[in-house]
Amino acid sequence: MATGSDRPETEFPRAVGAPATRALAAAGYTRLDQLAGVPAAELAALHGVGPKALRVLGEALAERGLSLR
């Protein structure tokens, strides 16, 4: 699953950061489209997912016409 670092293989932007990427992967999220419609508060409750990660994910989703709830 890892590619020589502590960051799991996902399609999330690198700016999300390794702790948030690991937390999302542990919760079963590995693709950006899986986050569409997920409440931001639910993601924020994951250890490692902070305001910056939520902002970056929100921006990446918006580029695809999607959003968090």
Which key features would you list for this structure?
3 helices; about 70 residues; globular; mainly alpha
Strand-helix topology:
Blueprint: H1 18-26, H2 40-44, H3 51-63
Would you write up a description of this structure?
It contains three helices and no strands. It is 39% helix and 0% strand. The chain is mainly alpha-helical. The model has no long low-confidence stretch (mean pLDDT 91). It has helices at 18-26, 40-44, 51-63. The chain starts with 17 loop residues before the first helix and ends in a 6-residue tail after the last helix.
The H/E string reads HHH
Radius of gyration: 11 Å
Number of strands: 0
Mean pLDDT: 91
Give the overall silhouette.
globular
Report the helical percentage.
Answer: 25-40%
List the uncertain runs: none
The description of the largest β-sheet is: none
SS-derived structural category: mainly alpha
How far apart lie the N and C ends?
28 Å
Number of helices: 3
Sheet-strand content, in percent, reads under 5%
Offer a quick outline of the entry:
With 69 residues, the chain is mainly alpha-helical. The chain is built from 3 helices and no strands.
